[in-house]
Each structure stands twice: as C-alpha cells, then as structure tokens.
Amino acid sequence: RGTPPKTGDTVLLYKWGYDYPPGWLAIVGLILIVVGFMIAPFSLALPTMANLGSTIAGAILKNIGFSLLLAGGSGGGAANLKHGNVLYSMDTAWRYMESDKIDAKPEIKDAKVVSKKCIKRILGVCILYMDGFDRYFIGPNYVHPVEKADFPTCKVRGRASACFKNGYRVDFGEEIKFIVDPTRPLFVPEQTVALDRMHGHNLPFNIMVNNARDKGIKYLKSKKPGGSLPGGFANGGKSFQKNDHIGEAISKGYFLPLMGTLEDVYFEDAEDVNGKEIIMSAAKKYALCKNLTQCGAEGLEDDLTGFGYLFESTSEAEKFSEYAYEIHYKWSHITKEYFMGYPLATLDQYFQMVAFNMKLVGSYSSSRAMKFHEAANLYQQDFNNRLSDYNSLGTATIGLKSRNLTLSKAFYNQFAKLNLDGETNIEKFDASMLTAQK
C-alpha cells in the first residue's frame, strides 16, 4: 500500500487494477477440468460435478488465461517505478547526473488502494479477486520564495535549475556552456538580446517546461487501459505494470520543450546573435561617452556621464570593451554544467570580486578620509592660533568678523610713537599694547 508524496508535482492519472483467482482454485480448477472430461462420457449420474468443474474452469480461463492458472498466486504489491530514458531526459529540469546524485526525472507510481477484494463468487465460494491502484505521475516542482506578493516569481515543473527565462550557447573549446539570463546593457538594441523569453520564441524557458509537462500528462492519461473492474477501476491485467509509459512519452517528445525541437542559439555566432560584437561595441561607446543622454541613452537623467572623461583614445576604449564583455558579461553569466540552467559557474566568484574591489576602493577612500581629517584638524589648530593673534588686536572674533581685519586706535597711537631710526624699544612697545588692551 502507499500514498503519493505531498511535495513536488503529483497528479492522479487514473485508477486501474487487475483480477486473479485464489491460489488454491487454480489447482482445483485443473483437477476438475480433467475429472469432468474423464467422467462426463461414461456417467450421467454425476452431471452436477462435471458442470461445476467446467463452470469454474471456464470462469478462470475467461478472466485470466490458462498461463496464469499454471502460475497461481495472489499477485499484489506496488507497481515498479518507471523512469524515462536518460538519453531523452531534460538535464536542465530533471538534473540526472552522477555528480549530483539526485534523480529528479518524472516517474509513475502506483498506490495500492484495493487488496484481494472478491469480485466473483460461485455457490458462495470466491473464485476471483482483484487488486486496485491509484496511478500517480510524480515529478519535480519548484516555486521561488519571495517576500513581497507583488514581486514576480518563478514557477517551474522542474528543479530550480530550470528557473530562467533565456539562455545562449557559448562553448569553451570542447566544453559546452551557456549564458543564462543575460542582461542588456546601454546602447544594445532591444531586438538583439532577448531578456524575458527564449531567443526566437515568445515564452521563457520555465513556461516552456510547464507547457511540455502538461502535454506529457495528457499523453499519460491516454494510456489508461480499456477494461473495467468494480469500483471504477480500469482492468489492465497484471502485465500492465511492466509498461514504461514515461519512457514512451519522452521518446516521442512529450515533457520536452517544443516536443524536443528547441535548438541552441549560439551567442557569439555572427549568423545567430553576434552578441560578442554587439556587447563590445556598446561598452566601447560607453567608454567614450561623456553625456549618456547625448550619446543616445534613453530614460536617464540628463547629467549622467559615461567614462568619456577617463578614456582618452579609441584603443583604450577597445581594451575596456573586451574586458567588460569577458568579465562583467560573459564570465558572470556562464553555466557550471554542460546544460542550459543554473547554477552558474562563477557568479559567486564574480560577486566576491566586485565586493573585494568595492572594499579596496573603500579602503582607499577611508585612508584618504583619515588623512583629510588629519589635515582638517591641523587647519583648525592653525586657525585657532591665528584667531588668538587676531583677538590680541582687539577686533577679530569667530565668524564673519574675522574678515577684512582692521586695527584699533590704540595700535595706531602706539605705532606712531615708534622711532623708525632703530631707537625704539620693542619690549616697551609690547608692554604698552598690553596696557592699551586692558
């Protein structure tokens, strides 16, 4: 017996079962068949026994076939789990890899809900039983958690690795890689790099996966057996458990986006997107631009600038554009595995690099701020010293009055008494000034 899991993508496909005789009846049925045929021509006194044997044997043969009579047994047990063919699986949504050790491919599971129920009796003796199952489709399901209700969420009938909108293929030598969820920087034409949909299509990848799953469910439901058993169960026979309907569906393109016809779009191929040239051209334009609005950027404030005040030549801008593409665009969006989907190989490293550089810049700024603070303290100390000198003249005070300094009458009176021939006693002059200040 069993119940379907409460998590993931679980769908009840249909109810099915099979019938079978009790084990002892199989043996008795064979004996009665033999006895019935042996005594029927020679004795009319035993018609009841002969008819009973033929009736029981006929019922058994009609319902389950002679081969099952020889096998006997009561059957039962949950159906074997059937996986789709790995060769046709979607690694993006199901992530079946030896390194991952997690198999999320969809499967079919039968939950046994009826066990050895008698469905036919003769003279009060049960001659036919049935087992019944609820057949479920079980697949992966992911919903991105969000804190705000108005924030768009990703819902995909697959693993979290399939939660993306668009992807482009970019190979590194013989390694297959992809750019997932690319961005569109300033000065990149809108029609060249798709953001919210797969390139050349109208839907994002996660919605394509969901639509493919829906078609696959319809196909699986169409495989419901045609026979009938009591309780609304379809009679598929015991051999029905051996069918690999998931494998059949995947081999025919079900559960695959666009029935398995979705093709890779090469980002750096001039015939597909020519994305490298487009991104580098936009970065070069940004490097030489002083006013973004005047350079053609839309929806920005008028006073925003590019790097035009930093780069002095076209060759410098070209080197910057190559750096911007390889590091800030391609490297930060490249996939870790060979399939199109998360996780990304260098996203954490990229953010760590950005954080390190921000910290480095912050350290420089902090050092400069400390030096500026030290210089400000020295300036304040010098200003205070000068202020005391100004106050000694009896006129300057803190604030605007320190401007346009004027001398007092006491100073002029004492200054007039100075003998410019060198006979003046400076000490007496200072003493007289202090007396005048009082």
How would you describe the overall organization of this protein?
- The protein is of the alpha+beta class and 438 residues long.
- It is 38% helix and 14% strand.
- It contains eleven helices and ten strands.
- It has helices at residues 23-39, 47-64, 66-71, 91-94, 205-221, 245-251, 275-288, 314-331, 347-392, 409-416, 426-437, and strands at residues 9-20, 82-83, 107-122, 125-139, 142-143, 155-156, 167-169, 178-180, 227-229, 233-235.
- The strands form three sheets. A six-stranded mixed beta sheet has the order 2-3-4-1-10-9. A two-stranded antiparallel ribbon has the order 5-6.
- Helix 10 runs antiparallel to helix 11.
- The protein is elongated.
Task: Please outline the helices and strands.
Blueprint: E1 9-20, H1 23-39, H2 47-64, H3 66-71, E2 82-83, H4 91-94, E3 107-122, E4 125-139, E5 142-143, E6 155-156, E7 167-169, E8 178-180, H5 205-221, E9 227-229, E10 233-235, H6 245-251, H7 275-288, H8 314-331, H9 347-392, H10 409-416, H11 426-437
Parallel strand pairs: 1-10
Antiparallel strand pairs: 1-4, 2-3, 3-4, 5-6, 7-8, 9-10
Helix pairs in contact: 1-2, 7-8, 10-11
